[in-house]
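Continuing from the previous page of notes. For each protein in this section, the sequence appears first, followed by its C-alpha cells. Read the first protein now.
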Amino acid sequence: MKMKLLVSAILLSGSWLAGVQTAQAIDEDDCGIWLCLPQGFPSGCEPHYAAYIARITHKPKPKPPLPKFSSCTTGDASGQYFKEGYVPYVPCKAGYTFTPGDRDDPAKCSKQVRDSKGDHKTESYTAIRRAHPYYVQVWIDGKPTTHYGVGPKSSKDWHIEGNTFWYRR
C-alpha cells in the first residue's frame, strides 16, 4: 500500500512538473520576432515573420504582436523593450487641433485663422483614418530601432514608418 502511494506521488509530481515547463515554454519562432522585427524581417527571419503574422491575425482574438520578453529570456526583463498601442488617425498638420468625431460628425483637424477682413474663422478638414492603426516600437540598448532597408517596408496589412511598425488586426 505504501509503495503504491509513493509511486503514485512520484508520477503525479513528475507530471505536474512537466506541465509547468510546457505551460511556460514559448515557441522559438515567436521569440525570434524580438530580433527580426526591428530590422524589417530580413532574410533568414521567414519563420519569425510567419509567427508574427499568425499572432496579429489569430482568430477569434489576435494575440499581442510580441510575446512577453521575459518568456524568451532566462532572466528577468527590467526596463522597457517595446511599446504597443492604437492610434486610429494620422496626426493633424502643424497648427491644427484634433477633435474626435461622433456618430453624426466625423473627426476633424481645425485651427482658427483670420480672413482678409481680419475676422476670425475656423479652417478645418476631415481627419484621416490610418489604414494600420495598431503599432509596435522596439528599443535595443535604450535606443529606438529603425528599419535598416532590409526586407519589405510595407504590405496591405502593415507598414514601417521611422522606428514604428504599424499594422491592422
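Done with the first. The second protein uses the same format. Note its length before scrolling.
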Amino acid sequence: MRIALQAKLAWLLIAAFAIGLAYASPAAAAPSFDQIDTRSKVALQELFKAQPKAKEFANRAEAILVIPHYSRGGLIVGGGYGAGALMKGGRIIDHYEVRSGSFGLQAGYMERDQIIMFMTPAALQSFTEGKDWEFGVDASFAVIDTGLGGTISVADLNVPVVVFVNNASGLMGSVALTADQYVRMEPETK
C-alpha cells in the first residue's frame, strides 16, 4: 500500500516538473521579435518550396501564424515550445508563443516548422480574441505534413484552419494526451 502511494506521488512530482519546465523556461529563452520575424518569413518561403500548393492556401487565408523551430520532447511526460509571427496581407501583425504539455507513452525529441492558416474570418477571430487558444478544443482543422509526402485535396479548402508541418527533424514516438496552448506575446519594450 505504501509503495502505491509513493509511486503516485512520484508521478505527480514528475508531471509538475514537466509542466513547470514547459511554462517557465521558454519565456526566459524566448527569441526577440526581430529573430521571430526573420525565422517566420524564412519558414513560410521554405513551405512554399516544399509544397507549392500551400501558396494557394496562403492566398485565400485570412491570416497565417508561422511557428518556426517548434520543438517538443518527452519521456512519458513531455513538453514543447515555439514562438512565431501572425501575418495578414503579407505583414506581421502580432506574435504568439505555443506551449505544450503531454503525458503518456512517448519518447524522443523533434523540431518542426508549424504553419497555421486561418481560412475564415470566424477562425481568425476565435484565435485572436480568445485569451488562450488550443487545437482540438477551439478549432476544426486539417493537418498536412510535407515531410511525409502530404497531399492537398479540395476538401482541405473547406475547413476553417489548415496546419502545415514542414522541416521536421528528430525522432519522437508518442501515444499521449497532448495540449498545445497559443498565447499572445506582449510587445517588447526598447
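What the second structure shows: Strands lie at 63-88, 91-118, 133-134, 141-145, 161-184. The chain has one domain: 2-184. We return to this in next week's lecture.
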